[in-house]
Amino acid sequence: MKRQLLAIPVVLALALTACASGNQGATNGASGAPDGTGTDLSNLLVTTPAATGDLDLVSWNLPLGEPASLDPIKAFNYPENTVVSNLCEGLMQLQPDYSIEPGLAEKVDSPDAATYVYTIRQGVTFWDGQAMTADDVLFSLNRHLNADEGSYWAGGIVSNIASIEKTGDWEITVTLKSPDSTFNSYMVTPLGTVVEKAQREAAGENYGNPTGKVMCTGPFSVGDWNQGQKLSLMRNDNYWNADKMAKTAQIDINFIVDSAAIANALSTGELDGSYDLPLSALSTLENSSNGSLYLGQSLQMLAIIGTGNGAFADPAVRQALMMATDREAIAATVFEGTATASRSLVPNNGWAYGNDVFAAGRDTLAPTAVDIDGAKEALKSATTDLSQPIKIVYPSERTYYADIISEIANGGKAIGLTVEPEGVPSAQFGAFFSDPKAREGHDAFVTNNYMDVPDPLAFLRTIVGTGGSQNYNGYSEAAVDDLIAQAAATGDDNERADLVNQLQERVMTDLPWIPIVDPSVRLFMSNRVTGAPASFVYLYYPWAADVGASGNQ
User: Fold this and answer.
1) Mean pLDDT over all residues of the chain?
2) At what angle do helices 315-324 and 493-510 cross, to 10 degrees?
3) DSSP class of residue 536?
4) Number of domains forming the structure of the chain
5) What average pLDDT does the segment 455-469 reach?
6) For 410-430, how does the pLDDT look when each residue is reduced to its tens digit (9 = 90+)?
7) Cα separation of 2 and 7, whole Å?
8) Same domain, 340 and 482
9) Partners of 39 in the β-ladder
10) Contact yes or no for 249/236 (Cβ under 8 A)
11) What is the pLDDT of residues 172-226, one digit of tens each?
12) At which of 201, 228, 258 does a domain end?
């Protein structure tokens, strides 16, 4: 057995930054569940054993395909973010334990929850040797406000920005329209990423593609980009942060998407590592003698999203269906023991503050065990026609979604509901997240979602806030919006966590989404390499800089 888990609990709190290096408890072999069956996922990895030396070359894989662009403001999905996180840096930087530390800003001051003053770090250079200035920072942040730039991050938190100004030679001040205590955490994402102004303007329409590329400050620069095959990351030997210098001279990022091909390349050593391992590859990789499968702390969750149509639009139906679904079976079978049943729409340990408060709030939520009698009782409150089938849409190429919906259908049948899977091509499925017309005539669709930042408030308000970016069924409650606004304006971490717990309790009653499972991070590395973070930070943290020799070559 090659599953690697942490043998000691990991607490994700800002004060416990030492967790980032505390992986001495990793063991070869999965821990048993308390009842003696399956895998105990209560103590997942944050890091993997640190590298003991440098390497000339490492081959990595992006199982979800090639990045469409390297422009940070177009980085809004797994392929783009997993690469860009090693090239371009934000004002703040997310750490493997989910704490947030200064990045290209030396510090941030916030006299109130609507004002953020960033002192820009001096002595930083871009890959071309040009010094980074406050003007580059100002230009980069304002790109999200410039409609001509087409930022994928526009809207949402960006729509709350009143102004971004240079208020000193090395100072940038962001003023918000209304208080938002989560704003600074977004500076770890592409919202806070800095690019060189002159190179962006010179590259024009080729910016971010293999011709124009990008110019940033990170531990790697862009090497050869062979479209459809691989992209090389080259170590930046003049990187400003000597303590974080990359341990590998070149990392080749491959774009293999076929599950069988991924499993074969990793198990034979053709590839050295990969995040987001296909579920169908797990059994092969778990038994590989050429490397190890690591399971890490995640900010991911799989859920069923309501569209506001059909019987699924009735909250009593959603509540009953969740109670009748064997989420624990889905975690154990479909995810092969690498996920846990979801207790909330907030993934477990998905916070970087208020740990005791959030943990206590989670304990008050309903357990995940199947409750058919309770589901039937909840269904009595339904006011819709229960004879109509509930159709849940999924991308037909990913058959494990059909397995999940089949289990939901079993639960529905037990309480008198008919649930049917509805497969559509992946190219068509993406429109369900962006086009209301695509959702017309459909009751629900699946999502393999994740939190951008480890703050439950930031995630929940996208789902239940009026006009939220992920509020796909038109949910709107004045009391919920008031809680969101109150929490956003609260500076004290524990007080804010208490308000978010109240929000979470309301959300788990109204259930605009049905949470199914919280997947763990699935990481594989060959025996010759180590060091990649095991937690879900690889979208915004320069994970490749930590990858180096294991000493087992």
Assistant:
1) 92
2) 90
3) T
4) 2
5) 96
6) 999 999 999 999 999 988 999
7) 14
8) yes
9) 32
10) no
11) 999 999 999 999 999 999 999 999 999 999 999 999 999 999 999 999 999 999 9
12) 201
For 197, the 3-state DSSP assignment is helix
> Do residues 318 and 514 lie in contact, with contact meaning Cβ atoms separated by under 8 Å?
yes
DSSP state of 45: B
Q: Which of 180, 201, 222 is the last residue of a domain?
A: 201
CA-derived radius of gyration, the chain? 23
What confidence score (pLDDT) does residue 43 get? 84
Closest CA to 265 of 549, 526, 510, 543: 526
**509 C-beta neighbours (distance < 10 Å), count:** 10
Residue 407, H or E segment? helix 399-414
Whether the Cβ atoms of residue 293 and residue 3 lie closer than 8 Å to each other: yes
Residue 122 inside a domain? The answer is yes
Angle at alpha carbon of residue 269, lines to 268 and 274, rounded to 5°: 110
The C-alpha atoms of residue 222 and residue 36 are separated, in whole angstroms, by: 48
What is the C-alpha to C-alpha distance for residues 297 and 261, in angstroms, rounded to an integer?
Answer: 26
Same domain, 190 and 332: no
Distance between CA 520 and CA 301 in Å, rounded?
A: 9
| Phi, psi dihedral angles at 222 (to 5 degrees) | -85, 125
CA distance 255 to 65: 5
Residue 40 has a pLDDT of 62
3-state secondary structure of 107: strand
Is the residue at 237 inside a domain?
A: no
Residue range 13-29: average pLDDT?
Answer: 28
Residues 132/152, Cβ–Cβ less than 8 Å: no
167: helix, coil or strand?
A: strand
For residue 263, what are its two tokens? 């499993």
pLDDT at residue 38 tops 80: no
Dihedral pair phi/psi, residue 335, rounded to 5°: -95, 5
Residue 145 is assigned to a structural domain of this protein: yes
Would you state the pLDDT for residue 7?
Answer: 31
Nearest alpha-carbon partner for 531 in 505, 514, 516, 552:
552
- CATH of residue 175's domain is 3.90.76.10
Q: Which domain holds residue 464?
A: 300-519
